[in-house]
UniProtKB/TrEMBL annotation:
Native organism taxonomy: Bacteria, Pseudomonadati, Bacteroidota, Cytophagia, Cytophagales
Transmembrane domains' residue ranges: none
Name of this protein: DUF892 family protein
Organism: Dyadobacter linearis
Superkingdom of origin organism: Bacteria
InterPro entries given in the database record: DUF892_YciF-like (IPR010287), Ferritin-like (IPR012347), Ferritin-like_SF (IPR009078), YciF (IPR047114)
Length: 169
């Protein structure tokens, strides 16, 4: 209910919301960990290979933090309805595959989609961090903020690589 411009939800509802949306991000990250290494060796730009490797390592750390959040909340990872982000990632890898005969264009596609995925994750982590504040759980807030900061750093790296290669085209 909206009262005095504030959302007044029960703590249980907020926790369920947080877990449901954490599940969606977790499913997407699981997919990235399995899919990104497959394109790592095929990346044409050496900077991109490094960025993909760094992204995979960061995603693994983020998943460990998310596992801790699940543990704190007494919840388990659920596949549930995670088609949104997973669908985006699946579509991204299909589009990347369309450019397999043109390494430069393929790498630009990789950069484009990874940048978009990181942006969505950043936005998601920002909202979940606000929820953690509302739930008055400092540890969960800290873990989510660390994931946000890593996603932000990865997105910035991808943007810089994009700018480098687009400006040389």
């Amino acid at each position: 209910m909206l009262e005095n411009n504030k959302i007044n939800l029960e703590k249980d509802d907020l926790e369920i919301f947080l877990i449901n949306h954490l599940d969606k991000i977790y499913a997407a990250k699981s997919m990235l960990v399995s899919e990104l290494p497959q394109i790592l060796d095929n990346a044409y730009f050496s900077d991109l290979r490094g960025a993909i490797y760094e992204t995979v390592e960061d995603v693994k750390k983020q998943m460990v933090r998310m596992d801790e959040i699940y543990q704190i909340m007494g919840a388990a990872v659920s596949e549930g309805n995670s088609n949104g982000l997973k669908g985006l990632i699946d579509d991204s890898f299909k589009d990347i595959g369309l450019h397999s005969s043109n390494p430069e264009l393929r790498d630009m596609s990789i950069l484009f989609y990874l940048h978009n995925i990181e942006s969505i994750e950043m936005a998601s982590f920002q909202i979940l961090e606000m929820l953690a504040v509302k739930l008055k759980n400092g540890r969960i807030k800290q873990l989510i903020k660390q994931n946000y900061e890593e996603a932000k750093a990865d997105r910035t790296l991808l943007l810089l690589i994009n700018a480098k290669y687009i400006s040389t085209v």
